[in-house]
Amino acid sequence: MGGAEGYITAGSYPDDGLGEVFMKLGKQGSTLAGVMDAFSIAISIALQYGVPLETYVEKFTNMRFEPAGMTDDPDIRMAQSVVDYIFRRLALDHLPHEDRIALGVLSAAERQAQVAGEDPNQVATQVESYAQSASVTVPAPEKSVEQESQDGRAEKTAEPQGFVADAPLCTTCGTKMRPSGTCYVCEGCGATSGCS
Description:
Elements: E1 6-13, E2 17-25, H1 31-48, H2 53-60, E3 69-73, E4 76-79, H3 82-94, H4 97-103, H5 108-116, H6 120-132, H7 145-158, E5 177-180, E6 183-186
Antiparallel strand pairs: 1-2, 3-4, 5-6
C-alpha cells in the first residue's frame, strides 16, 4: 500500500476467536518495523486479556496517515493508513457478518450485493458456505424465460446509471464510482470525487 509492503499473521483460538497478531512492515531495524512490532505485542496482549476485536476495529478503522492508498487486496482496494488496512482485514477474517455491518466493514462481494439491492447477509452466508465446501461444485440452476427477461431488464436499467469502465475507485470504500455531471459519485458510501 502506497509503496509499503507488509505481512500480517493472525493466530486464533479454536473456540474463542483471535488471540494474537504479528505485523511486519518496513526493513528490519527501521523505526516503522519497531513500532509495528511493539503495536503487535500490545494488541496481542490486550486480545488475550479480553479486549474484543470489535473495539479495535471501531477505534482504528478510518485512521488517516501515510503510507496510504491502493492495496492489492481485492476486498480492501483503498486504505487510509496501514492501521486502517490491518483492522479492516482482521475484521473481514475474524468477525461475523452482523458485527461487520455495524462497523461498516464489508467484503467486495457484500458491497456489490448492497449496490445491486441484494441482501448482503445472503452473500455472506454464500461466501462462508463456499469457503467451507470449496472442493464441492454445485451446477448453476437453469434460468427460466421469466428470469432471463428479468435479467435483460436489469442489464438495461444498469446501462443508464452511468457506470464507466475507466471511472475511479472510491477513496473511502474502494468501490467503482459512477459519473454524476462532471464528477463521480460512489454508490456504496455516497462519497464524491471532489464536487458537491
